[in-house]
Design brief:
Blueprint: H1 3-33, E1 45-49, E2 53-57, E3 69-73, E4 79-88, E5 92-96, E6 104-112, E7 115-127, E8 140-146, E9 149-150, E10 155-157, E11 162-164, E12 170-173, E13 181-184, E14 190-191, E15 194-195, E16 198-199, E17 202-204, E18 213-214, E19 217-218, E20 220-221, E21 226-232, H2 243-260, E22 264-269, H3 276-281, H4 286-296, E23 301-303, H5 317-321, H6 323-328, E24 334-338, E25 341-345, E26 349-350, E27 365-366, H7 370-381, E28 389-392, E29 399-401, E30 405-407, H8 422-428, E31 434-438, E32 444-450, E33 453-458, H9 467-471, E34 485-492, E35 495-502, E36 512-515, H10 516-522, H11 535-542, E37 548-552, E38 561-566, E39 569-570, E40 574-578, H12 581-594, E41 608-615, E42 622-628, E43 634-640, H13 647-650
Parallel strand pairs: 1-7, 8-18, 8-19, 21-22, 22-23, 25-28, 28-31, 31-33
Antiparallel strand pairs: 2-5, 3-4, 3-6, 4-5, 6-7, 8-9, 8-12, 10-11, 10-13, 13-17, 14-20, 15-16, 21-34, 24-25, 26-27, 29-30, 32-33, 34-35, 36-37, 37-41, 38-39, 38-42, 40-41, 42-43
């Protein structure tokens, strides 16, 4: 080979090899200098006392150095640079907070030279420094503050024990930590901060009894002696049957009511906000529920009650099935005050010893567990006997039986010492004047058990699980024929009034009257496809005598009055248990007509007890229905008969 050509070949090759070697060495050096962020375990939330350092766990080597810096970037894109004070690579690193950092959510980075390496997001709750040493055995403690000062005498509970804050607002508990949360009993004249609709009156704690948890709470002074409570029965939001669209329409009605009243406003739910089966098949659980609710409601607090469908069907036992609820929503039982009223929320759906899977979802018992009853006694011991008490649970303690009777065995699951069914529960609260609010049935009833105990089964937001409006647009009806709606309780000190508002309707819409002659012509066997499940309804309708008038007064109680007159002459009015004709038309007939011959469709019309019947003397006389509610308000309708039974006659009344 020509020597010159060989030199011309080798020189560039040697230069390329040297350049490659330098680049490789530089790349190796860069790789060694690069921070391994995947091994950093940033907690989602952290309570941190001011003046102390934050420790971030590591799952392995990270190449973080002592002279690196931590950057916390706020939601407003303000960077706070914090020094690293100690490092155990592969185990943890600690840093101190710089001045100006307040409670909030931050993106966290490691800064090296001019580069920021993203580690994750962290929600910091900055706690005031407390110069106390918790008593021996204390494993939950903290301070209750209002406007920067400790509030004395505030009740605090872990679901078993109670304690009170001292003169400095500090509390201490020696807890078994079974429920893994702690909550304050909000005093009258205060509110707590909220995240969306959820009030911050409770906080999760570790399950380790040897770990000392500090949990602080804030109270906001308000004048809430005069307030309105909007009561929402079963929502069953699951992203099916157009439920979100229908709920949005419902929310517009409720928001109008909220905006129309003076004073403070609050919402109380009565359970089954979600639908356990569709947590999995539709990916719609509590985070999705909260997104839906927070989209529709602003600047109002929701207190929640737990329902049977708010339990995780894929967990075992009452405690584990409630985990998602207690993590995302609230304790299963707790109490609070608004103004001069004491509220107690309890859970009477008992899933003890129930296993996993959709086939076992209905295997719960209806009762109050012994631990709840023990806690209830302690709670009431702090409540003056002159204070009105409102207790909520998902299931009622009784149910209607026929036109005027009652089933006192509805709450019948107690089978261990200390557990409570209806009679034991009422006895346990008999020292106080109690109004008991529930859902579950998707129907409405009101009952005065004793002079001191009144029960109110409050209907359902979703009515018939959103089916009636899905099948027959414009008809949002519960199985008892009551329109989907909400209770409105107005409080003035210790005095209060109760009404029911049908969503999307005028406030005067309190009953529905039928000319049964015309109903018989429409509700025939063919309307429901002559399905075996439909025919009993047809028979019930056809059994009414000629010229019968049927009136559905859904929020009726013994303080209401119902009269029916024909051309000025009072008719004999009798209470009856009946099926609501409009619900039969809008839902039951529609479902039966499309169901298979051997299938049994669900969500069909219920026979219920708030119906009244009279018989006119002719088919063409004018009849006037006059209903007076518990507050003295009078509602009337004049039926010029024959009155047609058609959708146009009843839609959006």
């Amino acid at each position: 080979m020509n020597t010159g050509r060989l030199i011309n070949f080798l020189v560039p090759a040697i230069l390329l090899l040297a350049l490659y070697s330098c680049n490789t060495q530089k790349q190796n050096a860069d790789d060694q200098d690069k921070i391994v962020t995947t091994n950093v375990s940033v907690p989602d939330k952290l309570d941190i006392e001011e003046g102390t350092s934050i420790s971030i766990p590591l799952r392995g080597k990270t190449n973080i150095k002592q002279d690196d810096q931590v950057v916390l970037r706020s939601a407003a894109s303000t960077d706070f640079v914090c020094p690293i004070v100690s490092l155990k690579d592969g185990t943890s690193f600690e840093f101190n907070l710089t001045d100006g950092i307040v409670s909030g959510t931050y993106k966290i980075y490691i800064k090296r030279n001019s580069l920021n390496y993203y580690l994750g997001s962290i929600s910091l709750n900055i706690l005031q420094s407390l110069k106390i040493e918790p008593d021996p055995g204390t494993n939950i403690y903290g301070i209750v503050l209002s406007e920067g000062k400790g509030v004395p005498g505030v009740l605090v509970s872990d679901g078993e024990l109670f304690t009170k804050t001292d003169e400095k607002g500090i509390y201490q508990l020696k807890s078994k930590k079974k429920w893994q949360y702690v909550f304050i009993v909000i005093p009258g004249g205060y509110e707590v901060p909220s995240q969306g609709v959820l009030p911050h009156f409770h906080s999760a704690v570790s399950g380790d009894v040897n770990t000392v948890d500090r949990k602080d709470f804030e109270l906001i002074p308000v004048n809430n002696d005069n307030f309105t409570l909007f009561v929402l029965g079963d929502m069953h939001l699951a992203n099916r049957t157009d439920d979100i669209k229908q709920f949005n329409a419902f929310s517009r009605s409720l928001n109008e009511s909220i905006e129309s009243v003076a004073g403070k406003t609050y919402v109380m739910t009565l359970g089954d906000m979600t639908w356990d089966l569709y947590w999995y098949s539709n990916n719609y659980e509590f985070p999705q529920y909260l997104n839906t609710v927070n989209t529709n409601y602003k600047n109002i607090t929701f207190f929640h009650t737990m329902g049977n469908h708010d339990n995780d069907m894929n967990s075992v036992g009452d405690f584990n099935k409630a985990f998602h609820y207690t993590r995302d929503i609230a304790p299963t039982y707790y109490s609070f005050n608004i103004g001069k009223i004491h509220f107690i929320v309890m859970d009477n759906i008992d899933y003890n010893d129930v296993g996993t899977g959709s086939d076992l979802r209905s295997q719960y018992k209806r009762n109050y567990t012994a631990e709840q009853m023990q806690w209830l006694a302690k709670d009431l011991s702090y409540v003056d006997k002159s204070t009105p008490v409102f207790i909520t649970s998902h299931a009622p303690v009784s149910s209607p039986s026929g036109a005027t009777g009652w089933n006192d065995n509805y709450l019948n699951g107690a089978n261990s010492t200390g557990e409570a069914n209806m009679s034991e529960f009422i006895s346990a609260v008999s020292s106080h004047n109690v109004h008991f609010l529930s859902g579950h049935t998707h129907n409405i009833f009101n009952r005065r058990h004793t002079e001191k105990f009144a029960e109110h089964n409050s209907g359902a937001v979703c009515a018939s699980w959103w089916w009636s409006g899905h099948l027959t647009e414009g008809f949002h009806l519960s199985q008892d024929g009551a329109p989907g709606g909400y209770g409105i309780w107005k409080f003035n000190g210790a005095e209060f009034t109760q009404t029911f508002k049908a969503a999307g309707h005028d406030a005067n819409y309190q009953f529905r009257a039928y000319d049964m002659n015309k109903v018989k012509e429409v509700l025939t066997a063919s309307l429901g496809g002559s399905h075996k499940a439909w025919l009993p309804y047809v028979n019930a309708v056809q059994s009414f005598p000629a010229n019968a008038i049927l009136v559905n007064v859904w929020d009726y109680d013994s303080d209401w009055k119902v009269s029916i007159s024909e051309n000025g002459t009072e008719l004999n009015v009798v209470p009856v248990a009946a099926y609501d004709p409009l619900h039969m038309y809008a839902l039951t007939a529609a479902r039966c007509k499309t169901a298979g011959a051997n299938s049994t469709p669900g969500f069909l019309t219920s026979s219920w007890n708030h119906f009244f019947q009279a018989t006119a003397s002719s088919a063409s006389s004018t009849v006037t229905v006059r209903v007076t509610d518990r507050n003295g308000s009078v509602f009337t309708e004049t039926l010029k008969r024959p009155k047609a039974f058609t959708p146009s006659e009843y839609k959006n009344q």
